[in-house]
Amino acid sequence: MKRTETRQAQIGRLKLGGQNKVLIQSMCKHKTSHVEEVIKEINECAALGASMMRVSILDEEDAAAIKEIKKGIKIPLIADIHFNGDFAIAAIKNGANKIRLNPGNINDENKIKEIVELAKKKKVTIRVGANSGSVSKDFDLFDIPLSHKLVLSVKKHVEILEKYDFHDIVISLKASNIKETIEAYRLASEMFPYPLHIGITEAGPYDLSVIRSTAGLAPLLLEGIGDTIRISITGDAQQEVIAAKRLLHDCGLYEDYPTFISCPTCGRTQVDIRPLGAKVFKYLEDNNIKLTVACMGCIVNGPGEGKNADIGIAGGKGQYVIFKKGEIIKKVSEAEAYDALIKEIDSLR
Is 315 helix (H, G, I), strand (E, B) or coil? Predict the structure, then answer.
């Protein structure tokens, strides 16, 4: 089922699913009971474009902290629960907008029923989140692909929720293996009417994660699969949000973001375009300028290769040309290049 056809789930004031908008989320890196640090982290991620944030619930202190955290943030809060269903109940009572239950380690149907009844009352969504590190024991020993184990783990849990007439469900099936993840989500999109949260789990540090996540998630996004996304990075949550925006933008799913083009440089390059390009892109991203901007290292081909850009610059020996839609509008010195380009960018905002 494509993202425009999935059932909608209400998460705080957000609607997830049933539309082409893919919501960005990340997960706090601090212990949830460290309230001030968590609030700061969430607000920074929200300012960058996160629609919701997830926190870990490891103990009663974490569950209790949700009440205070909610007072200091404006976006929905997701409580991540493993092993102990009582923490899910406490998180809901303290104001969590959504909870994540792992079918690999929460199996007591009586406890799940108790969680469901409270979630109904409080209008809280439940994400059934399976991952490759905690497949349901019922299927872990089956001689079938991991993707099928993930789907079966989720299916069993979803059927329990549906048994108690609960349908405010989101599903995730993450693996660190790209092919298994893609296959799992494709299967899930055919099997379930619910919105899908997509991601590659344990994807690694920034550079590795961006490559793995792009390789695994771009095919799904372009096929219309995925309603919300997290780029898992061994690093800051803020990096996760920015990486998600960049990926969604290049997939045509996040318009409110700059498009930046720069050449890889070669033997005919007579200027170092790299520092200029980095500085220009930072300006565009920091100011959320929705333009296509090109920084090219060659006066000969630069305006041609960047002809579709709203505005661009191309460098020769000690000299740059600024162009709009491929047409040169002025020549500037290397010292003037950055300020002159920014002035032209600002004139188009």
Answer: strand
The chain-wide mean pLDDT, for the chain, equals 94
Out of 3.40.190.10, 3.40.50.300, 3.20.20.20, 3.40.1390.20, the CATH code matching 9-250 is: 3.20.20.20
Max CA-CA distance within the chain? 74
Mind giving me the DSSP string for 128-141? EEEETTS--HHHHT
Q: pLDDT tens for residues 31-57?
A: 999 999 999 999 999 999 999 999 999
The gap between the terminal CA atoms of the chain, to the nearest Å, is: 38
Label residue 186 exposed, middle or buried (CB < 10 Å: 0-12, 13-18, 19+): middle
**Residue 309 — φ and ψ, nearest 5°?**
-75, 145
pTM: 0.93
Domain(s) labelled CATH 3.20.20.20 in the chain stretch across: 9-250
> Residue 240 burial (CB < 10 Å; 0-12/13-18/19+)?
buried
What residue ranges of the chain are covered by domains with CATH 3.30.413.10? 259-348
Helix (H) / strand (E) element for 171: namely strand 169-174
Instruction: State in words which class domain 259-348 has.
Output: alpha beta
